[in-house]
Amino acid sequence: MMAMFFWAFVIGGIICVIGQIMIDVFKLTPAHTLSTLVVIGAILDGFGLYEPLIDFAGAGATIPITSFGNSLVHGALHEADKHGIIGVLTGMFEVTSAGISAAIVFGFIGALLFRPKG
């Protein structure tokens, strides 16, 4: 049980270190870093490498932003098998809609509850 937490911490930490190196060493903006990590997660899922990483690291692979890219491609490929080319478009949104909706709702609630100091 403790090994699961250890590997989640290590893998999640490595993903975050990669992002920090991209910002500090390569002088990428946070937006470029975020986009690159999403694309990396998508590419890894396209080659079938992200699911084994999730099986191994659990939350260490599902919490970082790379998992969003994984979800987009995973949903698109799954729905493409069922519905063809239209499934590529609908599958991406079907899998990620709950997370995006939650971000919007919680962001709105946070904006209502907290006022910026100015």
UniProtKB/TrEMBL annotation:
<keyword id="KW-0472">Membrane</keyword>
<dbReference type="Pfam" id="PF03862">
    <property type="entry name" value="SpoVAC_SpoVAEB"/>
</dbReference>
<feature type="transmembrane region" description="Helical">
    <location>
        <begin position="6"/>
        <end position="26"/>
    </location>
</feature>
<keyword id="KW-0812">Transmembrane</keyword>
<dbReference type="InterPro" id="IPR005562">
    <property type="entry name" value="SpoVA"/>
</dbReference>
<keyword id="KW-1133">Transmembrane helix</keyword>
<protein>
    <submittedName>
        <fullName>Stage V sporulation protein AE</fullName>
    </submittedName>
</protein>
<dbReference type="InterPro" id="IPR014204">
    <property type="entry name" value="Spore_V_AE"/>
</dbReference>
<feature type="transmembrane region" description="Helical">
    <location>
        <begin position="95"/>
        <end position="114"/>
    </location>
</feature>
<feature type="transmembrane region" description="Helical">
    <location>
        <begin position="33"/>
        <end position="50"/>
    </location>
</feature>
